[in-house]
Amino acid sequence: RAERSLNFIEQIVDEDIAAGKNGGRVHTRFPPEPNGYLHIGHAKSICLNFGLADEYGGQTNLRFDDTNPVTEDTEYVDSIKNDVRWLGFEWENEFYASNYFEQIYQFAESLIQKGLAYVDDSTAEEIAAQKGTPTEPGRPSQYRDRSVDENLDLFRRMRAGDYPDGAKVLRAKVDMASPNMQLRDPIIYRIKHAHHHRTGDAWCIYPMYDFAHGQSDAIEHITHSLCTLEFEVHRPLYEWFIQKLDLFPSRQIEFARLNLTYTVMSKRKLKQLVEEKHVSGWDDPRMPTIAGIRRRGYTSASIREFCDRIGIAKRDNLIDVGLLEFCIREELNRTAPRLMAVLDEKPLKLVITNYELGREEIMQIENNPEDPSAGARDVPFSREVYIERDDFMENPPKKFFRLFPGGMVRLKGAYIIKCDEVVKDNAGEIIELRCSYIPESRSGSDTSGINVKGTIHWVSVPHAVEAEVRLYDRLFSVENPAADDPEGRPRDFKELINPNSLETVRAFVEPALVKATRSGSLTNVQFMRKGYFILDQDSTDALPVFNRTVTLKDGWAK
Ligand code: ATP
Ligand code: MG
Ligand code: MG
């Protein structure tokens, strides 16, 4: 903590503690609505809420903000719990706003009794019209002056199910002339005859966000209620309820939501991508969901590191997804073993003519030069190896340090070879290269005295394992698909989907790779010169599948 300056939320918490508020207690909550999977924006909120409590020896509740029966589901509840744990956090209490329905209902009756809430029969359109515009005062509803008794009776009948959806609402009686539109008699209860995933059919009226969130904070004695900037204008209402209902004074603090380039971050839009099958599911590795990012090969440590680096801001901004990629790259550079894979459906076969037929050698290749403790592995070498088609050019330009006719190159961890002959089929396509190796050039005991500029990766043909490799790119082709077009017109974000966000290729990989990843002893790997990859859940015994997490920043020896 001493290493960096405090962010503005820590400063507020410090002031509160210094002022003796809440006996120095810090209690936060993470309040997802279970209507979708968590995304990287939520990760920021999770790291912030849990991180703050950790820092001050406090606690964090996981609270499901499940006040909308129509959009919520237990599938989402389970995925959210799983994702929070995976990110490395454990909550103090698991709570549900729906557990407070009776208490929140009583708060509403108490407001009515104080003359601070009324039942309104106006339609949604009429209520919107009454609210007017920010520059002029609103108009009171004709139902605003109903008596306490009439309001109580109507509200109880709303609860009893006497009215259809939309027939009536309960509104807080705040101030129809307030310059803050949120205070112009906001709706706090609505009728919804819908089955709730936890309370079943017990209720047919449900509290609105503004009459559930702060009330839940108060019930749980949350000291600091952190939310995103769009709720800043709701804060006066949050505080009005605390005052009028004499609730525990939780303090709402707003911070900037995380937006990332080349993706969208609203659950509604993500859900559309899933439902309209633009992606394979919530955990499609191109999705900004925690489940997608995890499947893509990101570690929880890299996500926490990312959230740490972006910090806490008071203004909305758009963070370059390159920073997220940087965080995982930096980690995997240190931790991921480097193996060889030839990503080519029709790789180039190289026949080493002076290497005896049937001979095999085991090469010891170090797993990670950044990490000596990672040791070495056995890599079989034989007379025939596959290389990338790109690593050979028949007519190379100057400074091409890979293979060309008459040229020499080192096969990584093995021998220096020379290209003697190019074999083509009738159509003129190169089908193999006939080469010779320098026996004295074996890696580790090279006495050949030959210096070659290029080193390329390879896989022994008889030992190669075929795999499917999924090369992911950005899901959208523009930086901010949620923004309007340059002329200020709204755009359909789905028209901005990158048509080339997934390329599936066949590959030939080292046998050790498949063995180790399948046994679970290896998760993230580097394919030398190609990028970082992870075994995907779609793998079968016949065909392992690898997802590209991120490309390498720089290839070596290119
Ligand atoms: P979405 O717009 O994606 O549906 P939401 O805010 O409606 O998000 P909730 O489930 O209500 O989703 O969010 C739970 C918590 O996560 C809230 O406290 C919310 O402020 C926070 N959160 C959501 N999105 C972001 C984001 N992009 N950056 C930071 N915090 C976020
Ligand atoms: Mg929300
Ligand atoms: Mg939302």
TrEMBL record:
CC per GO annotation: cytosol
'KMSKS' region (motif): residue ranges: 264-268
Residues annotated as binding ATP: 33-35, 39-45, 228, 257-258, 265-267
EC number: 6.1.1.18
GO molecular function: ATP binding; glutamine-tRNA ligase activity
Domain named tRNA synthetases class I (E and Q) anti-codon binding: residues: 455-536
Motif window: 'HIGH' region: 32-42
Binding positions (L-glutamine): D65, Y209
Residue stretches making up the Glutamyl/glutaminyl-tRNA synthetase class Ib catalytic domain: 26-333
Alphabetical UniProt keywords: Aminoacyl-tRNA synthetase, ATP-binding, Cytoplasm, Ligase, Nucleotide-binding, Protein biosynthesis
An annotated GO BP: glutamyl-tRNA aminoacylation
TM region positions: none
PROSITE patterns on file: AA_TRNA_LIGASE_I (PS00178)
InterPro entries found in the cross-reference section: aa-tRNA-synth_I_CS, Gln-tRNA-synth, Gln/Glu-tRNA_Ligase, Gln_tRNA_ligase_bac, Glu/Gln-tRNA-synth, Glu/Gln-tRNA-synth_Ib_cat-dom, Glu/Gln-tRNA-synth_Ib_codon-bd, Rbsml_bL25/Gln-tRNA_synth_N
Subcellular location: Cytoplasm
Catalysis performed (reactions): tRNA(Gln) + L-glutamine + ATP = L-glutaminyl-tRNA(Gln) + AMP + diphosphate
Positions of the Glutamyl/glutaminyl-tRNA synthetase class Ib anti-codon binding domain: 336-437
Family: Belongs to the class-I aminoacyl-tRNA synthetase family.
Assembly notes: Monomer.
Stored HAMAP family: Gln_tRNA_synth
Protein name: Glutamine--tRNA ligase
Source species: Spirosoma rhododendri
Gene that specifies this protein: glnS
